[in-house]
Specification:
five-stranded mixed beta barrel, 19% helix, 622 residues
């Protein structure tokens, strides 16, 4: 028979003991049994069966692909929660209890923000202040425009600062309260208030820049970090009120020159005109009318002078003229004719209403007679040659005196002098002579042109007995230059236009009172030494100093105003708390790393070396 298995169960009837052997027939019984066995084999399948419906195939699949247990599912869910990117909460997976424990950090969010639409027709940039300009249809999504403190409409609805740059027609985020980072706050100090500026979207910092009338006062927040690119502000918008927006002020029909006056009956301040303020009953108008009437009667009185009956008490014109002349004579006294009027006196002091202040200021620029200090290039008369007094010696006098003086000069002797003078040169010669031969010791100066390397002397010299200087630096013979002829010096590297080349030629030269190598090394070490100083307060820095900062508060270190080329200063955060108490290095008019901004040291234990390279790049920080 055809079995129902495996899609259904078969109902195979067993023969009864009373059944005939052929009911069912013997062949039918075997056929039923064989069909059932074949169906079972097909369902179970042979070893390594490829039939996907067989039990053998499915069991092997279970053996090779692990069963996804509840524990595996719990571990997977726990891994999704237990990461470090949650904001203001931590998530810990308890594998034993099969649970995720969520814990709030601080219990508060670090900022509140709002998605808004920019449809101003231009890009709105990160860090610009915006106000609510409307909403988008039924969605209620806010539209924003750049805020300005110049009008009520652009300032009163200011509600936050842009967290990102938003193109026209795009959606962006406004921080309405909380920490906003990644801003340029380099012109501020930590703790400075942030105000809305007059330029659309502008932020201004500090109490010194607080807006005043007629501009509107809108407080935007507090600077929490002052940096050029990583600055931050804690946003907390507070909008200033107009006078007539206060609950106890009732102003209507405003007019010029009005004042506000408190009314205890209504409990409000109201605007009033000056007349009503000082004369609420209107009596001032009556007094004004009476005065006008009295004045009219005086003008019509032909008998008396404005109602005065006794005219003998009045001064005559002659009396008044005499009195005025006497008073004028007393004022002029014996003054010269060119200074006997106020106009002439004013002209004499150049019509200067602040003449006393001008004279005081001018005197302040003059050096005192006792121990004067001069600036600039002072000029004085040049004394005659050989003058021996306390008169000031000008540079011209000194040069003339030196030129006229007798110098020790050079000695040409067969032996060294027994009592040499300081600066004297002894030339070992075959003959003892008293006349100085300029061709034995000669210095010739050249001003190089661009890429010049060869310099020819006027006088022949002995190669190997010369010294060559470039810009005052002694060059090394054979390395920095060669002397191929008795008149020629050839540099190893081309000179730059303007370089000064000095060629000193000598023969059998000996000298006295010179420095030894050890003495020169001592002088070099003394000049290159960096002097250490420990500081904990605002300080103006000096070159060749190493400053150890031990402050427990923020401080400012001011660089020298007029540094010299190659000046070096070292700064070390010795206390190791610069991230908490920033160290501001004020540039004092010079660039730092080529930029017109101060250096902020905010890393603990930082060690900085500042080397002055000139006005183009200023101080280089290493």
């Amino acid at each position: 028979m055809a079995t129902n298995y495996p899609t259904g169960l078969d109902n195979l009837a067993n023969p009864a003991s009373t059944d005939e052997l052929d009911a069912p027939s013997h062949s039918q019984q075997h056929a039923n049994a064989n069909d059932a066995i074949e169906a079972l084999e097909a369902k179970v399948g042979v070893n390594n069966s490829a039939v996907t419906t067989s039990l053998d195939y499915r069991v092997r699949q279970l053996e090779t692909v692990p069963t996804y247990t509840n524990e595996m599912a719990q571990d997977a869910a726990g891994a999704l929660f237990a990461h470090a990117n949650h904001v203001n909460l931590t998530a810990v997976y308890d594998d034993t209890g099969n649970q995720v424990i969520l814990t709030g950090v601080g219990g508060t969010a670090n900022k509140i923000s709002q998605e808004v639409l920019n449809n101003t027709g231009a890009t709105i940039y990160k860090g610009q202040a915006v106000y609510a300009a409307g909403a988008v249809g039924a969605s209620g999504q806010l539209r924003v425009s750049l805020s300005s403190n110049t009008t009520e409409s652009t300032s009163s609805k200011t509600f936050g600062i842009m967290e990102d740059t938003v193109l026209d027609g795009a959606i962006g985020t406004v921080v309405t309260e909380g920490l906003l980072e990644g801003l340029d706050t380099s012109t501020a100090n930590p703790g400075d208030p942030v105000w809305l500026g007059a330029t659309p979207g502008q932020l201004i910092f500090g109490l010194a820049n607080k807006p005043s009338a007629p501009n509107h006062l809108v407080f935007l927040g507090i600077v929490t970090r002052a940096q050029a690119q990583t600055g931050s502000i804690f946003v907390k918008v507070q909008n200033g009120f107009e006078l007539d927006e206060l609950h106890d002020v009732a102003i209507s029909n405003k007019q010029n020159n009005q004042v506000i006056r408190y009314n205890s009956t209504t409990g409000q301040w109201t605007n009033q005109t000056i007349d009503n303020l000082f004369d609420p009953a209107g009596s001032a108008a009556a007094a004004q009318s009476a005065a006008a009437s009295a004045l009219a009667s005086h003008e019509s009185d032909t008998t008396n002078i404005h109602g005065i009956a006794d005219t003998s008490l009045l001064a005559t014109k002659a009396y008044a003229d005499n009195a005025a002349s006497a008073a004028a004579a007393a004022i002029v006294d014996a003054a010269p004719a060119t200074l006997d009027t106020l106009n002439e006196l004013a002209a004499a002091i150049n019509d200067d209403a602040s003449f006393a202040s001008t004279v005081t200021t001018a005197l302040g620029t003059k050096a005192p007679l006792a121990s004067p200090t001069f600036t600039g290039i002072p000029v004085a008369p040049t004394a005659a040659l050989n003058t021996d007094t306390t008169q000031i010696a000008t540079t011209a006098f000194v040069i003339d005196q030196i030129d006229a003086s007798v110098q020790p000069g050079a000695l040409y002797q067969t032996t060294a002098p027994l009592n040499p003078e300081v600066g004297q040169i002894w030339i070992d010669s075959d003959d003892e002579v008293d006349v100085f031969d300029k061709n034995i010791i000669r210095r010739q100066t050249f001003t190089a042109v661009a890429e010049q390397d060869t310099f020819t002397t006027d006088v022949q010299f002995i190669p190997g007995y010369e010294q060559v200087f470039m810009n005052g630096i002694l060059l090394l013979r054979g390395t920095d230059y060669t002397t191929p002829t008795e008149h020629t010096v050839v540099l190893a590297a081309d000179a730059t236009a303007g370089d000064i080349i000095d060629v000193l030629t000598v023969t059998n030269l000996n000298s006295v009172n010179t420095y030894t190598q050890a003495e020169i090394n001592t002088l070099i070490n003394a000049n290159k030494y960096i002097d250490p100083l420990s500081i904990s307060a605002n300080t103006t820095l000096a070159a060749k100093k190493r400053y150890f900062v031990t402050s427990a508060s923020a401080l400012t270190l001011t660089l020298p105003a007029s540094p010299a080329l190659n000046d070096e200063i070292q700064i070390l955060d010795a206390s190791g708390n610069a991230s908490t108490y920033n160290i501001t290095v004020a540039r004092n008019g010079n660039l730092i790393n080529g930029n017109a901004g101060n250096l902020i040291i905010d890393n603990n234990g930082g060690w900085y070396t500042l080397l002055y390279t000139g006005s183009t790049y200023g101080w280089k920080v290493g």
